[in-house]
Amino acid sequence: MNTHQAFLDAIAITLPELSVKTDSESCTHWGRDWTVHFQSNCQAVLFPKTTEEVATIVRLANEHRTPLVPSGGRTGLSAAAVAAQGEVVVSFDKMNNIGKFYAADRIVEVEAGVVTKALQEFAESQDLYYAVDFASSGSSQIGGNIGTNAGGIKVIRYGMTRNQILGLTVVTGKGDVLNLNGGMLKNATGYDLRHLFIGAEGTLGFVTKALIKLEKPPVNLTAMVLGVPDFDSIVALLDKFGKALTLTAFEFFDQIAVDKVIDAGHTKAPFDSQTPFYVLLEFEAVSDEVLETAMAVFESAAEAGLIVDGVMSQSIAQLQELWKLRECISETISVFTPYKNDISVLISHLGDFIADIEAVVKENYPDFEICWFGHIGDGNLHLNILKPATLSKEEFFAKCQTVNAFVFETVKKYHGSISAEHGVGMTKKPYLHYSRSPEEIAYMKAIKAAFDPNGIINSGKIFD
């Protein structure tokens, strides 16, 4: 029997037109995200179409003490959108309208269920650019991006999702509707509550609309893929190219990642040489002078032994082909059930940090295949441990989790983050104390209680 039937009965009376699904297939589909650590135990899925309907749902949930979990594109990697404790899911799939465009301000109002790619295409139709981009842009939704403060491949140039959000409409855990900041660049009128909801993983309330800043489109994007002999060379190249060019991306990956992508048929090797690590950097080639500068830095770095081999795109098609080396990694390695760590430190610490992590990995995972990639331009590393065919998922995860303490102690040593862009959710919840002090966590819990006193909204995520 559904444990929240009284709540669902109240929904049927109060919002008779609201779409509700209770079949097991739908509950499983909308009650989970891309993580495989937790199973869905969703009781029902609700599909509101307006902010007012969301507010009504939250008020009734408070009345009946029914916990709610937000669901967007379900592309998260921290189990923040998994309904594992018998919750009711609120899906934003039907709140997918792109609203008013403020041309003079370069701001567009979108609902939470708008898919990232749809916003990118709208921006292009206005000769503008939505700068947040990552592999799941074709299915991720704006509300989820806001909830996790999504980053991606352009952070070095444009910043995180937080940097693009100029206003929010939210429904708090009490069912209050707040319109935050109104799209203004300047607004010095006290606390900016908008920023509490960005990155809160839906624990304070539901984002229903956002006012999003669009940028001028980049011009003549050009990419280089460079084969490098060691990780220290990557950091040195970031310094050299970063001083000489305005970079729009600076990514890295290892030979294992390249091998997996090529073996899967996504693209071909960028050049004949094989190296331990690779850099993919992108910049706007707005003039011949910029291209000459890029080549001069390349030649200087090669002479210094920082580069073994390299290639530069000569067309849009070649640019896209080079990007497949980086963008196809997550999809390619997914068949190996990877155990993912999404960590970050200051760029200044990267060389020492990666050496420490490599030592931990080699000592504790001698028989496991390790795949490295990430956004070196913003200090973000993705450590992926690939499951051997001989181990079950449960055995594999148990072995990986025993070493988490060593990995996160290293993160703490360098005052870094245990989750750079994937969020905390449930998968990283046990390790939050490595990045946040007891005092910080206490304040976070107090903020949660102020917005959601009955613990209705996405409870059990980030902290208990």
TrEMBL record:
SUPFAM superfamilies: FAD-binding/transporter-associated domain-like, FAD-linked oxidases, C-terminal domain. Keywords: FAD, Flavoprotein, Oxidoreductase. Residues 38-217 form the FAD-binding PCMH-type domain. The keyword Amino-acid biosynthesis does not apply. GO terms for biological process: respiratory electron transport chain. One of its GO terms (molecular function) is FAD binding. It holds the Pfam family FAD-oxidase_C. InterPro entries: FAD-bd_oxidored_4_C, FAD-bd_PCMH, FAD-bd_PCMH-like_sf, FAD-bd_PCMH_sub2, FAD-linked_Oxase-like_C, FAD-oxidored/transferase_4, Oxid_FAD_bind_N, Vanillyl_alc_oxidase_C-sub2. Its cofactor is FAD. Belongs to the FAD-binding oxidoreductase/transferase type 4 family. This is FAD/FMN-containing dehydrogenase. It comes from Moraxella cuniculi DSM 21768. The lineage of its organism: Bacteria, Pseudomonadati, Pseudomonadota, Gammaproteobacteria, Moraxellales.
